[in-house]
Amino acid sequence: MAHHPEGPDAAATIRPAQDHNRAWDHDHDHERDGDRNPHPHRDRDRDPRSDHDRDHADALTMTALLNCLVREVVSPDSDRYDGHRTYRLPTTGHLLRVRAGRYPHHPALYTPGGWLPLSLDLLVALTAEELTACTGVSNDTLAGEIRHSRDVVATLLSTRRTLTPSSQPFIEPTELFLRSEQALVAGHRYHPAPKARGGLGPDAWLPYAPEARARFPLVLLGLAPEIVLEEGDATALDALGPPPPDGGLLLPAHPWQLELLGVPAALRDGRLRNLGETTAIRDGRLRYLGETAAMAVPTSSLRTVYLPDVDLFCKFSLDVRITNDVRRLWARDLRRLTTIDSRLREVFDDLPAHLPRPSALSDRGYRTVDLGDGDGGEALAVVVRDGLGAHLRPGLTALLAAGISEGFPGNPLDGLDEDRALAWWQGYLEHVVPPVLHAYLRHGVVLECHLQNVLVGVDATGAPAQVIFRDHEGVKLVADRHPDTAPRVSAAYGWERLVYCLVTNNLWEIAGAIEERHPGLGGELWARVRDLLAGYAADHLEVRALLAADHVPAKANLLLRWLGADGGEMRCVPVPNPLRART
């Protein structure tokens, strides 16, 4: 049951559902299955492969939007199941049918003339009509973001289809790890515009896209000591190139961020004129020093790169809206990094001895430059994150949980029979769930354990043998346990966020990937989660309430984007609790 806020004038804008359907039926009669070419605008001489990429991109984009609608907006219209599900848009009254499966697809609208298959544009229009009616708020930008996201996906599909193997591939197991990071062509499956990249064309972002298997050098800047801003341990950056002349420190920069800031990619004269005519640039205290010899490979988050040759992750600012936020390293978050890092060390240092040992990639510190422009160094900040070598146990290969959910060549879920799939799931649960609950219940620390922040160390058979958490930026601290330390949240908010990240985002999707391969196994998968949580229920009210709840929280990404919410805002809607025993 989703929450549907209504504006004061919403009722006045609503026409009867039958009238709406007649209008849709009349305006879009030509799109009905089999009536005529559904893409009359296409030139017959176009490459059919590009048409296929476009159709595939449309389908992936519609699935993301349907996921959001089903979670946040629509109401089930009946319990009948014939390979399809039907839903009612509650304010406009439209009846929507989708083909069921792990993700909904092939949407159709009921009209007096029958079921009208919906194109992406029609589904977007239907969504906008419903959201305008139910919220009383219009939005002039989201439709464009959705279409832009589709265009990005189409470009990625085409690029991946035509890629040739690199002349210098990384050796295994690094190559398999990177393959898992590069697998998210469809992006966040529950966001209306998961691949939108600021409305920019492929020339701007494709050279830096993980899904296109990009690799590139970082730009090296030299900083005079008096303009350096840093906290924590950022010394790993000093190994990325020779020391600047006349002393000072190195600052790597993401080349796309420099382009976004107006610095030409070539930097032909070795200066940074277009970054701004500040005193530091004019007098040479900030200088261009060339590029790193080590190649950077973008991870699934786009703005975080991995340098395999030196085993280092670097997280940058990117002044582009990606999903819900402009991906800048905000000063308020940078100042918390070392505090969160020390808290996480405390959390895992006292983990009970009988539990598997996780690890956390340390965000050791950051470095940036103060240009005296009021920016506080955000635009050129870089966070220094540990590489895998200091954390991954010998003989294991790190894989991104989101990549395992999405699929890639070498996915450990492929080829498992039911018994081995259940054993894999059991191992995954035992490595992921206990440390997350321990962090919250014992320490009041909320790990942002969603799929993109969890690495799974698998052994030679592909079985889970270690979990590594990453990215301190999303970690929260419960206020009554950490009264003097930011970022503080209430216990209720912290638990809701934890359940969303762990159950709805993480376990739900990994279980879905297993059940996709082994239909009918879902009941046993969730029974094993219940059994594991039952061990905590006797001592913790929150866990007992979770096991008994009818619903769990899901982040309302569609409503958040429609209402123009702040990028860090967390607003949830209830979805059926998969932990409840199935009847």
What does this molecule look like?
The protein is 34% helix and 20% strand. It is of the alpha+beta class. It folds into 3 domains: 11-153, TATA-Binding Protein, CATH 3.30.310; 215-337 and 363-387, no CATH class; 392-576, Transferase(Phosphotransferase), domain 1. An 8-stranded antiparallel sheet has the order 7-15-16-11-10-9-6-8. The chain has a 5-stranded antiparallel sheet with strand order 1-2-3-4-5. The chain has a 4-stranded mixed sheet with strand order 14-20-19-17. It starts with 16 loop residues before the first helix and ends in a 7-residue tail after the last strand. The model is unreliable at 1-45 and 265-271 (pLDDT under 50).
Secondary-structure class: alpha+beta
CATH level-3 fold name of the largest domain:
Transferase(Phosphotransferase), domain 1
The radius of gyration computed from the alpha-carbon positions, rounded to a whole number of angstroms, is 25 Å
Main sheet attributes: strand count, strand direction, barrel closure? 8 strands, antiparallel
Query: What is the CATH architecture assignment of the largest domain?
Result: Orthogonal Bundle
Count of beta strands: 24
**Strand coverage percent:** 15-25%
Structural domain count: 3
Percentage of residues in helical conformation: 25-40%
Distance between the termini: 19 Å
Silhouette: globular
> Which stretches are poorly predicted, pLDDT < 50 over at least 5 residues?
1-45, 265-271
* CATH level-1 class of the largest domain: Mainly Alpha
Order of strands, widest sheet: 7-15-16-11-10-9-6-8
Mean pLDDT: 88
